Amino acid sequence: MELKEIQRLEGHTDRVWSLAWNPATGHAGVPLVFASCSGDKTVRIWEQNLSSRLWECKTVLEETHIRTVRSCAWSPSGKLLATASFDATTAIWENVGGDFECVSTLEGHENEVKSVCWNASGNLLATCSRDKSVWIWEVQPGNEFECVSVLQGHTQDVKMVKWHPTEDILFSCSYDNSVKVWADEGDSDDWQCVQTLGEPNNGHTSTVWALSFNPGGDKMVTCSDDLTLKVWETESIGMQSGGGFAPWRHLCTLSGYHGRTIFSVHWSGEGIFASGAADDAIRLFVEDTESQAGGPLYKLLLKKEKAHDMDVNSVQWSPGEKPLLASASDDGTIKVWELVS
Amino acid sequence: MVSGLINANPIIYQKKERRLRTAPSLPHDEYSVEPIDQQEDPEHPYSLEELKVITEDAIEVDDRHSYVRVTFTPTVEHCSMATVIGLCLRVKLMRSLPSRYKVDIRVAPGSHATEAAVNKQLNDKERVAAALENPNLLDMVGECLAPTYD
């Protein structure tokens, strides 16, 4: 197996923090599209040319955010793009025939917004900030967004928010070393922290930077400044019929693979998870079917040294039948990779 | 006299005679780590070297592995300037070193009351990036670094 570089994309003039594939692309003849965001305060939209297979920048979204754009996320329909910025706002962009128009600006966080995520049905949006809070926004008709809950609980910056792939359960990870699980236990926007995955239950011992779910939604992987990846599992997805919450438990810890902070982890539809780290490398992990009882259940498939000239901030698998991997780096470039055997 | 300074009367040390460094192995590596000890303390008109916040021995350079570690010693263990000093050190190194270098910055073990918290913040690149977009902090960093560009 080899991770083969298809293309190196230049255009951003500062570090690229994050990227997001448009989930409505890559099948039925629709060319793959992704968005990238950067310390240069812009967002770039990249599209694959169906004949040349090469990527080109279709448009640059600028002059809206006045500071770093830290993360971006497509709505499930691929029609809306949300961008979170250090300028304390989240912008919502509507894709009208390839032109992107900023249709809403979400204000309320006290300082840097670090991450944004849509839920599976596209009617809820979550944001998180250095102000330690997580906000849940409800999508109203006419591109209006109403904040329905402000979740306090983390004691430090919240680095990332991620919705469960099928359930309305929200996960947040933080500089306070923990992952928190949030669910609406009533029916009146009564969002509560239902579980904290921290040091006492085999959690991370330093900043948790990111998390990602397996295709089935019953496992997740988290990555941290403590140089480990951790895999967690739950018995049943979501809320049980009795109204109780099925807790997540620690499955295994992958240590000894990374020498510097792991910023990004992403699980593919094929069950391979990729990590991007401050050692400029990309690593791929797969389930280890021959593992001994009590041993790690995942093994390193391959390590791509010097994937970039500087830190790898984000790794994301594309939608579609044969997923491609895209990576974003402090070196200002994005690379698209193909896994070939 | 009432003073607003955290450490009003720091001990001042002699500047050390500069040791000659051997020529680095890589051709484009004309940069050096030395400029940071000329840096000014945010609170005093002295350089970090004169205050023994930074010493030459506390700067570890592994050129082959493109790695630098700086260990600095705040003048008092409750120094609230520690994160600013660390930020200045990082910015100076970011601007002076080739981008292939990985830089870790920390306070000397036992030298600060909130050592772990200071170290964590100084090495969180997202926090560093956000701090450097703050005009007030950027001005302060600029003032501290000004003497190093003489």
TrEMBL record, chain A:
Q: Where are the WD repeats?
A: 9-47, 62-94, 106-147, 151-182, 201-236, 305-341
| Coiled-coil ranges (or none) | none
The transmembrane segments are none
Q: Which InterPro entries match?
A: CIAO1/Cia1 (IPR028608), WD40/YVTN_repeat-like_dom_sf (IPR015943), WD40_PAC1 (IPR020472), WD40_repeat_CS (IPR019775), WD40_repeat_dom_sf (IPR036322), WD40_rpt (IPR001680)
Note the superkingdom of the native organism.
Eukaryota
Instruction: State the family it belongs to.
Output: Belongs to the WD repeat CIA1 family.
Say what the protein does.
Answer: Essential component of the cytosolic iron-sulfur (Fe/S) protein assembly machinery. Required for the maturation of extramitochondrial Fe/S proteins.
Write the protein's name.
Answer: Probable cytosolic iron-sulfur protein assembly protein CIAO1 homolog
What is the native source organism of this protein? Clitoria ternatea
TrEMBL record, chain B:
Q: Which InterPro entries match?
A: FSCA_dom_sf, MIP18
Reply yes or no: does the keyword 4Fe-4S apply. no
Task: Cite the SUPFAM superfamilies for this sequence.
Answer: Fe-S cluster assembly (FSCA) domain-like (SSF117916)
Q: A GO term (biological process) for this protein? A: protein maturation
Q: Which GO terms describe its cellular component?
A: intracellular protein-containing complex; iron-sulfur cluster assembly complex
In which domain of life is the source organism classified?
Eukaryota
Q: Which Gene3D superfamilies match?
A: 6.10.250.1280, Fe-S cluster assembly (FSCA) (3.30.300.130)
For this UniProt record, give its keywords in alphabetical order, as a comma-separated list.
Chromosome partition
List every stretch annotated Disordered: 25-44
Q: Which family does this protein fall into?
A: Belongs to the MIP18 family.
Protein's name according to its UniProt entry: MIP18 family-like domain-containing protein
Q: Which organism is it from?
A: Clitoria ternatea (Butterfly pea)
Record lineage: Eukaryota, Viridiplantae, Streptophyta, Embryophyta, Tracheophyta
